[in-house]
Amino acid sequence: MKKLFSIFLISLFAFVSAQDKDAQVTANRFFYELSFKPKKDSAKLEKVMSVLDIVKDRSVYRDYTMIAQDSIIKIQIEAMQKSGVFKDMSKSMKMPKFSEKIVKYYPDMKIQYIERIASGFSPMAIAYNETPKFDWKILNDKAKIGEYNTQKATTEFGGRKWTAWFTADLPFQDGPYKFSGLPGLIVKIEDEGKNYSWVLQGNKKIPNWEELSYGEKISNMSLKVTEMPREKFEKTFSDFKKDPFATARPMMTQEMMSKTIPGMDGTIGDMMKKQEKMYKDFFNANDNPIELIQPVSDKKKK
Fold first, then answer.
1. Which of 41, 62, 133, 169 is deepest in the core (most CB within 10 A)?
2. Can you tell me the distance from the alpha carbon of 268 to that of 259, in angstroms, rounded to the nearest whole number?
3. Could you give the angle at the alpha carbon of 130 between the alpha carbons of 125 and 131, nearest 5°?
4. DSSP-derived pairing of the beta strands 58-63 and 101-105
């Protein structure tokens, strides 16, 4: 039963990035509102809050949705542990729009791009590494964005043309997603077609910062990451999106699939079908990736 319970924790938290504890570390957390077009042929925009946490040796970028609900997760999980009754938390939780976690390591800005997949009954982190070189063209144009005095810069990345506005008032050569390398923090960046647009909304200090949230701790996530060439990463993640329970299904007997868990509607098999649909709906919701093309060097790797 413990293994079965783990399956559903994976389903709940697989969209959240793996993290670990950094004792007595204070982070600078920057909040970016991301406006994006999830569908290529649609003008409809969606919005989500993302965060860039900057500590001494690295930065961590991710969707803020699950982190913001950490206290709710803690209360509900502790209630389940106390009662011994499983509760379908997907009914009360808001799911994120993006599942990736991006870590930039200072000072060379090597990037580790991480996604989570299921491996049998356990979550597994897979990643590829890269050190993108942004050919920024810094222009003379200046603008006031929020409280910051900013300057304009342009570059091309991932098959799109980007315009950024950075500020020297914040001495971090970093920004949302993979973007970095300007003499100051990126306050706003968007591509030419406005498919993706990040705008800095605010920042605060996070004392005793921990990358690992309560939800991730309870679902046994860790910082252990399986690194692979980008081409292999893309194939592995693509296979997972097509069949999220491919590695767990062979371990499930018909008897196990027909059992029920107190507090859950239907059988375990019914729950797995529901969770599989949740995964597929999540992945199919966006067919307009940030990066339209991979770097040539990545494509050549075998």
1. 62
2. 6
3. 140
4. antiparallel
> pTM above the 0.70 mark?
yes
Give the model confidence (pLDDT) of 129-155 as tens digits. Answer: 999 999 999 999 999 999 999 999 999
CA contacts within 13 A on the Cβ side of 256: 13
Give dist(CA 110, CA 105) in Å, integer: 5
Phi/psi region, residue 263 (left: phi>0; alpha: psi -120 to 50; beta: rest), is: left
Residues written for the chain:
302
Which strand ranges, in their side-by-side order, compose the sheet holding 101-105? Answer: 137-145, 148-157, 160-167, 185-191, 196-206, 27-36, 46-54, 58-63, 101-105, 110-119, 122-130, 225-227
* Measured distance CA(220)–CA(209) in Å, rounded: 19
Convert the pLDDT of each residue in 25-54 to its tens digit: 999 999 999 999 999 888 899 999 999 999
Please report the pLDDT score of residue 28 as a whole number.
97
Q: In 3D, which of 10, 232, 215 has the Cα closest to residue 122?
A: 10
Rounded CA separation 174/58 (Å): 10
Q: At what angle do helices 268-284 and 230-242 cross, to 10 degrees?
A: 130
pLDDT band at 92 (very low <50, low <70, confident <90, very high): low
In the numeric block, which tokens belong to residue 297? Answer: 């060097």
Tens of pLDDT, residue by residue over 259-293, are 876 666 778 788 888 888 888 889 989 999 999 98
Q: What is the DSSP letter of 264?
A: -
